[in-house]
Write a structure and sequence with these properties.
The chain is mainly β. 0% of the residues lie in helices and 56% in strands. The chain contains no helices and 7 strands. The chain has strands at 4-9, 15-20, 24-29, 34-40, 46-51, 58-62, 67-69. The strands form 2 sheets. It has a 4-stranded antiparallel sheet, with no helix packed on it. β6 and β7 (67-69) form a beta hairpin.
Length: 70
């Protein structure tokens, strides 16, 4: 896991997403303090992460010039 560049709380407050220098996004369960998912696909640093208002999707932006909807 690299340096964390961005974090976002889910709308319901149960999860936290973190984007980092290792090109991954980790979804943390805030009740267990454990990583529940690791999302990979960007080719460079993950610079930003955000949940949609309904919490159904996570969006991310990367230094590779791409954005993704998860």
């Amino acid at each position: 896991m690299g340096y964390v560049r961005s974090i976002a709380f889910s709308p319901d407050g149960t999860h936290l997403a973190s984007g980092s220098d290792d090109k991954s996004i980790r979804i943390w369960n805030l009740q267990t303090h454990q990583v529940s998912h690791i999302l990979e696909g960007h080719e460079s640093y993950v610079m930003s992460v955000a949940f949609t208002p309904d919490g159904e999707y996570l969006v991310s932006g990367s230094d590779d010039g791409t954005g993704r909807i998860w």
